[in-house]
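Forum: Protein Structure Q&A
Topic: Joint prediction for protein chains with partners

I've read a bunch of threads here and the consensus seems to be that you should model interacting components together rather than docking separate models afterwards. I'd like to see that in practice. Below is the full input, 598 residues plus whatever partners are listed. Could one of the regulars post the assembled result?
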Amino acid sequence: MTAVRTFAGAAHVVGDNVDTDRIIPGKYTKTLDTADLAAHLLEDYDPELAGRIAPGDVLVAGENFGCGSSREQAPLAIAAAGIAVVLARSFARIFFRNAINIGLPVVEVPGHEIQPGARVRVDLIRGEVVDETAGRTYRATRMPPVMADILAAGGLVPYLRSGGDYSVKG
Amino acid sequence: MPQTAAEKVLSRKAGYAVEAGDIAVVPVDGAMATDATAPFAIKAFESMGGARVWDPARMALVLDHATPAPNERISTLHTLMRRFAAEQRLRLYEVGDGICHQLMMENGHVAPGELFVGADSHTPTLGAVGAFAVGVGSTDLAAVMHTGRIWLKVPRTLRVELTGSLRPGTYAKDVILHLVGALGIAGATYEAVEFAGPTVAGMTLASRMVLANMVAEMGAKTALVDTAGLEAQELPAPLRQRLGASGPLAELSADPGASYRAVHRLDVSDLGAQVAVPHLPDNVRDVREVAGVKVDMAFIGSCTNARLEDLHVAAAVLRGRKLAAGVRLIIAASSRAVFNAALKDGTVETLSEAGATFITSGCGPCVGTHQGVPGDGETVISSTNRNFRGRMGNPNANVYLGSPAVVAAAAVAGHIVDPAEVLSGVVA
Ligand code: SF4
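Posted by a regular:
Agreed with the consensus. Here's the joint model:
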């Protein structure tokens, strides 16, 4: 189990429809080394962004974050760069699943207005996101229980190793 | 209760009636990973404690995304896949055999009513035969390899009903580009898209694959094309064999009265050729609005549009003509079988005489790794499915998407042009 269920960090903000080719271009994905991936995170979007990330920071996006390919290198690159949690107004389907599966917390916060540099606190258990800079509290969309279980285990690998069987509750 | 096509397949797999919104844990009929996703999947499979793939006969690996390997690092990943396939007795498709989705269809890995899981976002292409085919990432695929099962949320369905006949010079690609433009890049996020109607009933399997392929560009989870009108002889021989040589095609249609998130009706009769302009696949215009845009590179390839019927369309445009000065046309047939058929019937000769360059059957320039990366400031017209900035390997290039006819016509004219004008001889 990952002990950490609450996060606080500075917001790095990107816009709508940021696709996986922008998160990590296809030409850099053919590797098993996640440090290589982190070095090219969002490079075509903002070449300086990766260098500004401090461990524990929060990536904040608009609508449809992670659309495009199924490459798991996209959430892997984000996690390897030190991002602790990704918030978006909405996510693309495969990206959302992939992030949970590798244990990167992703939180859907419809209509958020978080600005670059804002200090953001995320409480995964309560489903609460606080923009401390603007003094606003948002409610996160609830994810299916099976996803919450996988995320709580730290990803799909530890989930299955510890006997997880996708049991569907309710 | 009347069911959508998606609810039908997943109910059959679950063993009880499911409806949109339910979470179901279901056994998988077929699975696939490529050189872009298999290395991480193998690593995750091993970390899960996986020893044997649940059912080696149901799992294939494909070398298609970077083939032949452009450097030693990628070559080493290919070696890892070859070794894993041999150890696990999985079918491995080698360099040059073709693009994963084409190979899965051609070789009978997927059948109507089945549940297929592919570690590639264009896996819904296989919905062309009425399967529930869904794209996942590497770790999800690893879990399928380990357990033979997957958890899925039963999607809501957007039904698309097509009527009317396509005009000369327009194709399934123009229909799906128009729909992506009309519904938007997130227009069907998390949903199944069901295609039906008389226009669909008259389509070849190849054209049905074009429709299903680009639901990925609407964010959809899967596509299910109504099997009405799909004749058994349209199905690839290995699939016919698997279904029983003389047996009828297992049909998959939604029940009348099924409940949909929305129904979108389109009469295709008045549709002109469509083009997606930089840098999103839903920036769609009628070709006449972008006519005159000068092109440097033209590409016919990808899991969207590089089957035999596509090469025939390109040959019809290019027969007896030459590429415009300063334009390069690169072609990657979607599989070796497609290339061989085009070789035998003279299509390859026609295209090569016009100046086209054939490269390895595989993803090629579609994914921007090698074999035709555009230069800074260059414009590409491509029969592929994505024009995100940097998709073809250079963030400073502009990529336009169109049908093989639009690509071939632009290659002849040197600029984007309505292919109907070239086909009818208005443009030399
Ligand atoms: S051809 Fe392009 S879109 Fe299709 S599987 Fe290959 S890289 Fe993906």
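The longest strand of chain A covers residues 6-13.
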